[in-house]
């Protein structure tokens, strides 16, 4: 079940895969599962591992891959002059290289020459300095195209960074706070190279972590330099909206009229409703939209502020109470002809272990948050380190214990600030709130409940930021809000927000779907992988998926168009066992 960070490489065959270079004899290898295996697995990048412990690198190995990834800190110590010469010759012949080993002091001068870099020490060597911020220089490059130009990403701890100067033929994509290059791209005349000049410890949760704002530079760097065509089994760029009615405020069709505006813009919101608050016109509206595929309906609360899946006043319901309430909920949904969403939408993230045996009566298989059964909001929580990264903010994994649900969670990482750890695996949530500027909800603190007037621009910016982070991390985009905030907005406000949001996210590929659609696809991706990828000729690629999916899968295939990668989707259908494409 929970398996993050990945300790085992899930390797693939073929000449269109990435070759991940490391050395298990060195202590730094212990970081590779979290920094590399977990990321490549989540991105769906087919790869195999080359452990230098097995001997010198051979040219034929580099001919038989799409891109070489140096994925371990200080690996330059293990690379002989012959190894480096083999790598540089392969790059000159067209191999792509992504090097996450910042410590270029251990590399030959010829390596720096290829990168268009030079050291700053009096002996022309490469010095090291601590870096605590990574700033995006511009968003004109493929790697940074969906970043905000000038955006600064702050690390929790400083990490080592190389001090170098870049020449005219080297493109600096990101810088440290000292103005030194942090990520650069260089074309060698044959192949292409992306060089990270900060320690790969940046990808550990302790320092910064995956899904926190820089993952697009990670995976796009691989795509940019790889021999094409190049395939990835990643999540498509899905977007979803979710709205919780905690207090029983969605009652009539007028209360939910904003859903029609969302539909105008192509969205299919997941409406999490209060079962005993809806009036006839509210049920009729949801039924009509449900039947036309424009909304998902999830039972959320029993009465205003009263949980359906946990209890009341901090005390869990009995099994008999759960059986009665879930049976009544299923009957209400059936009476109104609405099939419930498959996602457990639990009020305040609380659900009891006692309710789990009854969830199949509602068809619930998925969960929208990471809290474990029996936990209440103000009590201690277990950090069960869900896949892919062990992050409690971005998770695709099964909950621990009996009756596991598949978690599909994309919470903005400001939520990390709300946790006070009692031990490495146990934490409390900040009872006073204070979840950073994000406030976890794209309307929270920005409506006329808390401001003199609705801050439309900030709402759109927050929504765009939630979407940008999710999609750049190859999770999913979109955000959540609540009925006590949505009631403050006019239909004109909604159109203004969505118009502005579309302009702010114009550079992002986006596919608006329902939350159920994302959950089912994400679980199917979790259970499938690209087991083989082979280039055949200048444009052809043969792929083999393995595993089992509940829904048809799409594989992303990248080809170069005027020097820039362009993605197309290859329909794979449902997978059961092995499937060739």
The DSSP helix count reads 12
Major β-sheet profile: 10 strands, mixed
**Low-pLDDT stretches:** none
**Molecular shape:** elongated
Number of strands: 32
The third-level CATH topology of the largest domain is TIM Barrel
Supply the number of structural domains: 3
- The CATH superfamily name of the largest domain is Glycoside hydrolase/deacetylase
Give the termini distance in whole angstroms: 29 Å
Strand order of the largest sheet: 2-1-3-4-10-9-8-6-7-5
Give me the CATH architecture of the largest domain, please: Alpha-Beta Barrel
Strand content: 25-35%
The secondary structure category is alpha/beta
The CATH class assignment of the largest domain is Alpha Beta
What is the CA-based Rg, rounded? 25 Å
Helix proportion: 10-25%
What's the mean pLDDT score? 93
Q: What do you see in this structure?
A:
- The two termini are 29 Å apart.
- The protein folds into 3 domains: 18-227, Class I glutamine amidotransferase (GATase) domain (Rossmann fold), CATH 3.40.50.880; 238-517, Glycoside hydrolase/deacetylase (TIM Barrel, Alpha-Beta Barrel); 536-580, no CATH class.
- It has a 10-stranded mixed beta sheet with strand order 2-1-3-4-10-9-8-6-7-5.
- Helix 6 links the parallel strand 13 (242-244) and strand 14 (270-274).
- It is built from 12 helices and 32 strands.
- The protein has 581 residues and is an alpha/beta fold.
- Helix 9 packs across helix 11 (491-504).
């Amino acid at each position: 079940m929970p398996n993050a960070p990945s300790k085992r490489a899930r390797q693939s065959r073929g000449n269109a895969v990435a070759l991940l270079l490391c050395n298990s004899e060195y202590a730094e290898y212990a970081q590779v599962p979290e920094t590399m295996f977990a990321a490549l697995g989540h991105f769906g990048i087919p790869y195999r591992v080359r452990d230098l412990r097995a001997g010198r690198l051979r040219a034929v190995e580099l001919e038989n891959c799409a891109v070489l990834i140096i994925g371990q800190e200080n690996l330059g110590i293990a690379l002989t002059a012959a190894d480096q010469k083999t790598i540089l010759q392969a790059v000159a012949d067209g191999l792509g290289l992504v090097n996450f080993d910042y410590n270029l002091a251990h590399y030959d001068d010829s390596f720096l020459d290829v990168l268009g870099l030079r050291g700053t020490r009096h002996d022309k060597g490469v010095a090291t300095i601590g870096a605590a911020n990574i700033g995006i220089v511009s968003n004109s490059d493929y790697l940074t195209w969906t970043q905000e130009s000038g955006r600064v990403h702050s690390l929790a701890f400083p990490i080592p960074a190389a001090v170098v100067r870049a020449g005219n033929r080297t493109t600096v994509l990101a810088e440290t706070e000292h103005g030194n290059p942090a990520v650069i791209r260089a074309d060698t005349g044959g192949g292409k190279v992306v060089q990270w000049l900060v320690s790969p410890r940046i990808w550990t949760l302790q320092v910064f972590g995956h899904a926190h704002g820089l993952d697009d530079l990670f995976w796009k760097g691989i795509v940019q330099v790889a021999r094409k065509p190049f395939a990835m089994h990643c999540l498509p760029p899905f977007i979803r909206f979710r709205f919780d009615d905690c207090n029983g405020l969605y009652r009539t069709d007028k209360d939910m009229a904003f859903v029609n505006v969302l539909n105008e813009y192509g969205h299919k919101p997941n409406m999490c409703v209060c079962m005993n608050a809806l009036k006839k016109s509210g049920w009729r509206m949801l039924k009509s939209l449900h039947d036309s595929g424009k909304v998902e309906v999830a039972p959320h609360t029993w009465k205003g502020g009263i949980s359906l899946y946990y209890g009341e006043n901090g005390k869990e319901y009995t099994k008999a109470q759960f059986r009665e309430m879930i049976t009544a909920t299923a009957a209400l949904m059936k009476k109104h002809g609405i099939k419930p969403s498959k996602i457990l939408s639990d009020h305040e993230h609380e659900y009891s272990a006692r309710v789990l045996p009854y969830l199949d009566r509602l068809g619930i298989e998925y969960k929208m948050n990471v809290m474990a059964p029996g936990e209440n909001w103000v009590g201690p929580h277990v950090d069960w380190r869900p896949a892919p990264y062990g992050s409690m903010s971005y998770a695709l994994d099964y909950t621990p214990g009996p009756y596991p649900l598949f978690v599909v969670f994309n919470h903005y990482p400001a939520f990390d600030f709300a946790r006070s750890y009692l031990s490495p695996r146990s934490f409390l949530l900040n009872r006073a709130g204070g979840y950073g500027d994000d406030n976890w909800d794209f309307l929270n603190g920005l409506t006329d409940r808390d401001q003199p007037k609705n801050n439309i621009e900030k709402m759109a910016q927050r929504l765009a930021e939630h979407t940008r982070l999710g999609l750049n991390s190859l999770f999913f985009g979109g955000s959540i809000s609540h009925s006590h905030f949505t009631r403050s907005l006019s239909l004109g406000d909604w159109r203004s927000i969505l118009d502005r949001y579309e302009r702010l996210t114009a550079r992002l590929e986006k596919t608006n779907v329902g939350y159920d659609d994302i959950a089912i696809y994400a679980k199917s991706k979790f259970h499938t992988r690209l087991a083989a990828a082979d280039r055949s000729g200048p444009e052809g690629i043969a792929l083999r998926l393995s595993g089992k999916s509940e829904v048809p899968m799409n594989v992303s295939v990248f080809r170069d168009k005027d020097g820039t990668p362009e993605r197309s989707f290859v329909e794979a259908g449902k997978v059961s066992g092995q499937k060739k494409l």
